[in-house]
Write the structure tokens for this entry.
Amino acid sequence: MKTIFLDIDGTLVADKGTVPDSAIQAIKLAQKNNHKIVLCTGRAMAEIYQPILDIGFDGIVACGGNYVECNGQVLLNRAFSFDELEELYHYFEKYQIDFYAEANSGIYTSSGCIAKLDSITESLDSDVLKQSMNHFKSHLINGANLYRSDINKISFLGSDHSFLDISKHFESKYELFDLVVPLFGKNSGEISIKGTDKVTGIKLVMDYYGCDHSHTIAVGDGNNDISMLSYVNYGVAMGNATDKLKDIAKHVTDDVNRDGLAKAFYHLGLC
């Protein structure tokens, strides 16, 4: 039995914002062959929409490892303190960085976030990407209280303030990842709770199911998947993955829009 950890955006979900039929079929066949399929994503639970959940997974590692559940049992649920949120929000306001705060209950935006995302959407040449962005924006909550007890990750959009400066300022306190969503522009990224990443969640799932490390596989496409692919026994990068991820992967499959996930499953003999 293998345990496969799957990123969502750019890995499971294609540019149209939907999961390719080929990926769903491959997942179902792999599960029929007694393999465990676990989501391992930077998305908050509020961003894992019902059509994705309906596929049926054996576990979920969400918010970059800050939330973990298996069979409906919550194994981990970490969140920023109000003092931490105040520090982060003050910094973003000072340097005019738009962001959205990700929580189990919803996705909450800074005052200028929607306008910035609208501008990004208008600049896109692809109607498919525009549709995907509009679908994402429809789930954002604007104007709500940003001080909430269940916020466990913050995504910030590109700005004139360099990611390097952000990283230098916060790296001793938090986990940071750059260009997780390339569409968000230069200097964009994510900031999460210190000491937590996707590997944190992977280890909890492995303990829960009694998984052998030699039977673990991960598939991803972004820089926030580097720790995940480095930790498991066999790492797969999508064809659309970053160069950094491809460099550490043991196998590079096809693009997410060209049935890359299904091709990886068949290459590995999972289905």
About this structure: The longest strand covers residues 151-156. The mean pLDDT is 94. The chain has ten helices and 14 strands. Residues 68 and 172 are 24 Å apart (CA to CA).
